[in-house]
Structure prediction request, 268 residues.
Amino acid sequence: MIALSGIDAAALGGATPVLRGVSLALAAGEQVAVIGASGAGKTTLLNLLALMQGPLTGRFTLDDADPWALSRRERQRLRADIALAPQQPPLPPRQRVAVAVLSARLPRMALARSLRTLWSPPDAPLAQAALAQLDLADKLWLRVDRLSGGERQRVGLARLLVSDARLWLADEPLAALDPTRAELALATLQRNARERGAVLVCSLHQVDLALKHFPRVVALRGGRVVYDGAPDGLDEDLLDELYRSQNEAPPEIAPLAQPVPLPQAMCR
Prediction:
């Protein structure tokens, strides 16, 4: 489905490579955890997979095509198959939760239906069902600015659940959640992705959860892939090198980073 070969890529808006020589393949239905210290390139990798930016060098193919060799319209069609949940979802503060969740379906809607969804969502039961899986069913008609940080993060994950995307990308989806809700959110994402045959890629600071729940772990250090395989292949020495060589121990809960503005096409 996706293949990266010798990819160098900068952070959004930058020109200096953050990812260096990254080669990676993702097959349909795979579930992958991406780990690494802060600044290792996890967010840049997810942004690259989301087609928010192109590589500086190397080859990137999606379904055997280079997205950046296509027209803008054709690339937009590809983006409709990709859903990204950033650490801090770009949710308008005065928007109702139901509308915020269902906006994930706008790229596939006709104009008339999309406008109706923004003002009087006909698919509210779908949004409520997704929110219920994340223990947020009672927040359906609440305004986004009435939610806590952890609740807003779960609303962002509910958007993945209602999308029709084939590739789900979650950037530090557990950063603002307590341990119980983190387990619930991760189990919900994995179950739904498995049922739909979607690829799920999560960047995580919670190394214990990555090793416990994911069949494949990709470890980044200094923008390079230093491990790609089953979790039982990551021993204590490698984990120690992965984090402590960069003066960062594996954290339990990572702080939220400043939000990165998303292209309008990803915010609809």
